[in-house]
Structure formats: structure tokens, C-alpha cells
Amino acid sequence: MNFRGKHKPDPVGFQIAPMIDVVFLLLCFFVTSQVFTQWESEIDIALPTARTAEFNRRLPGEIILNIRVSGEVAVSGRVLNETELGTLLDRLVKLFPGQPVLIRADRETPYAHVIRVLDLCRKSEIWNISFATLPGEEPVKGTP
User: Fold this and answer.
1) How far apart are CA 57 and CA 34, in angstroms?
2) What is the DSSP string of the chain?
3) Closest CA to 93 of 123, 64, 73
4) Which helix (H) or strand (E) holds 98?
5) How many CB atoms lie within 10 A of CB 53?
6) What is the 3-state secondary structure (H, E, C) of 31-67?
7) Which residues are within 8 A (CB) of 12 and not within 5 positions of it... i.e. 6 or more apart?
8) Can you name the CATH fold of 44-135?
9) pTM above 0.90, yes or no
10) Which of 61, 50, 62 minimizes the C-alpha distance to 107?
């Protein structure tokens, strides 16, 4: 007895429904990752301006150190004291040598706070450091 018969099923063509699912999931992933990228830059910091400033894309794995006016340093939304920041930077160098670091300091932040963070980076042997600024022209004090 031949139960299969002589009829062969038609070959399956291109399935559009699974393709739509995959595209939708990719869209969700990229929208979510964009939100986290913007979240770091939306911390309450008024960046200084510079005539030569450019909007550069973030480097892969770049760590952003946000220095507030009060001298607090926030990394990934967490405020760290000097010891915790030093430990974080040491671990960072041990795991990823050459790791880029972006320093975002408020325009009203005293210079001493920025130097303190730079000193911690140097102690940890981080050399790939950049500073965040906005394009534009900052007025010189004493001029209208």
C-alpha cells in the first residue's frame, strides 16, 4: 500500500510574516539602545561651548564621567566617590587597556574638580581622554 500518493507538496516560498517579526525586533532593539545612549547625555550638565567643537559619534565602549558643579562624579547614573571612581577606573584598565574616557563637566564646575578626575585617570594609566563641549561661541567674561 502506498499512502503517500503521487502528489508532491508545493515548495514553500518566501515567508513574509517571520521577516516582519525579525524587522520589528531589530527596530525595538535599536530604539531601546538609542534611549540608553541619550540617557547618559541628559544628566543635568550645561556643557561649555567651543568654536572648534564637533558632534562626534561615541566610541564603542566609551565611559562617560559626568562632573557636576558640586564636584560629584556620576558614571552610568551612579554617583561615585573618589575611592569608588578610582577602583572603577583601575578595573576598566585591567579589563580593557586603551579604553576611551569622555569627561563631561558643567561649565560652572571649578577647575579643581576636573583636575581631580584627570589625576584619577592618570593614576589608573588611562590615556585616551576627551572632553565634551558644544559647538558655538562662549562670550568672554566682562564683554556684553
Assistant:
1) 12
2) --SS-SPPPPPP---HHHHHHHHHHHHHHHHHHHHHHHHHHTSS----EETT---PPPPTT-EEEEE-TTS-EEETTEEE-HHHHHHHHHHHHHHSTT--EEEEE-TTS-HHHHHHHHHHHHHTT---EEE--EES-PPPTT--
3) 123
4) none
5) 15
6) HHHHHHHHHHHCCCCCCCEECCCCCCCCCCCCEEEEE
7) none
8) Nucleotidyltransferase; domain 5 (3.30.420)
9) no
10) 50
Residue carrying the nine cell digits 562632573 = 67
Dig out the grid coordinates for 137 from the structure.
561661541
- Note the residue count of the chain: 144
Residue-wise pLDDT for 46-79, tens only, equals 666 666 555 556 555 678 888 888 888 888 878 8
**Residue 90: all three cell numbers together:** 583601575
Domain chopping of the chain, boundaries: 14-43, 44-135
Name residue 3's amino acid. F
Q: 121: which 3 cell numbers? A: 585617570
